[in-house]
UniProtKB/TrEMBL annotation:
Pfam families linked: OsmC
Originating species: Staphylococcus simiae CCM 7213 = CCUG 51256
UniProt-listed NCBIfam families: perox_SACOL1771
Name by which UniProt lists this protein: OsmC/Ohr family protein
Superkingdom, natural source: Bacteria
Length: 147
């Protein structure tokens, strides 16, 4: 079994309407409760970081999957939307919807169109974040292909 540790440190002082800090090997960001949830909205927040983690993991996984399938000159733009719900006094992420826009050479358009459903599934199955939230958060993928 291969194991890798990802270390972050967080700091917070005061009550709910303060600003904290999260630091990792590269990441360094202020954190607070989003203004849409009654907080001060400075920096990022755990909800946005969860969606960002899912989005960045999926786009890297999709790029690798397309590369292994011998698709070249591919550009991917991914919009991801996380939908949280408030049920029984608790917030939880209900779903994350990925909207990949895949731009590819015209010569590969038909081949990619045929193979894309399977490739999207492979990318999702190889994404660590998708695997970590599966059975708790519904992941939906709605692609668009352009030349």
């Amino acid at each position: 079994m291969v194991q890798h540790d990802f270390k972050v440190t967080t700091m917070w002082s005061g009550g709910r309407n303060q600003v904290g800090k999260v630091n990792g090997d590269i990441l360094s960001e202020h954190i607070s409760i989003p203004s849409s949830l009654g907080g001060i909205g400075k920096g990022t927040n755990p909800d946005e970081m969860l969606v960002a983690a899912a989005s960045s993991c999926y786009i890297i996984s999709l790029a690798a999957t397309l590369e292994r399938a011998k698709f070249e000159n591919v550009t991917i733009e991914l919009e991801s939307i996380g939908t949280a719900t408030f049920i029984n006094g608790k917030f939880a992420m209900k779903s994350i919807n990925h909207y990949p826009k895949i731009q590819i050479d015209n010569k590969d358009f038909e081949r990619l169109t045929k193979k894309l459903p399977k490739l999207l599934q492979i990318a999702d199955q190889n994404c660590m974040i998708s695997n970590s939230v599966r059975n708790n958060v519904k992941i939906n993928i709605s692609p668009t292909i352009t030349t």
